[in-house]
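<context>
A single protein, sequence plus fold
<entry> Chain with its tokenised backbone below
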Amino acid sequence: MASSTADSPAGLSLEPQSRRVGEKAIVAWLFLAALAAVLITIAIVVALLEPAAEFFRFVSVTEFFSTARWTPTQADPEFGVLRLLAGTGAAVLYSCIIALPAGLGAAIYMNEYASFRVRQVLKPLLEILEGIPTVVYGFFAVAFVAPLMKDNWWTWLPGQLGEEPGTQFILAAGVVLGIMIIPTVASVSQDAMAAIPRGLREAAYGLGSTRMQVATRVVVPGALSGIVASFVLGLSRAIGETIVVLLAAGAMANLSILPNDPVFTMTAFIGRTSTGEIAYGTTTYYSIFAVGALLFVVTLVVNLISIALVRKFREVYE
């Protein structure tokens, strides 16, 4: 037995050596994947910076953020991006009002109340909902949600809120945006809740807590960092969505957040203008890149805030 061990030292050393080579190959592949993501981000920034800088040769930053009107395609163009920011903010606001409580409620139900069989049905259905193309959501907003709301508008509301909307208005787009990001919020939040140790739940039940108390006072606070991350993922998707707001929110750059007003978002402007007939090298052409750069900065700020919140509320369990 001793001789066989002594006769095969090379055989014993081959397996660790091959394992080390495989691990190095995997690490190298992961490094290349991370490097590719960084390089793609840098390429996007570079692609936006030069045309955006060209835009600001003709339009000052002060004018860009303070002008009252956004009319880039008219004979006497004005470039007041605040109206686009307001439209984007309104779309995100209404989508979050729908998606955040609904997504969190779905996550709590799936994780704390639903049986294993029910969870096995609900989660794939949510993932299917997440995989539906956005253009389908856009036509759903135009063909079903907007006419339904228009025909049943709350005319008893005071002032401008009681005015019946047109065929395109921000609430219809916001509702469909909210429906679209519910699966993201629910899925990520449920995964965060599932990571909470079972011992915490059992200790709470042992103290006489009800299921609702365990869910709202133990599980949700413990999974708060993951829930915040799910909210920000949904928020980022709502900010960057194009087709739904392009089809359902209208194309009027109104400085309004009223639900029955049409608005123009940053993504809708980029989508509509870049596919239209505009001359290369004009200020209107370069305005697409300026708005794209601003959208990039807004998304970056949202993600930085997300990172800070996740670090603040992160819980580590052993």
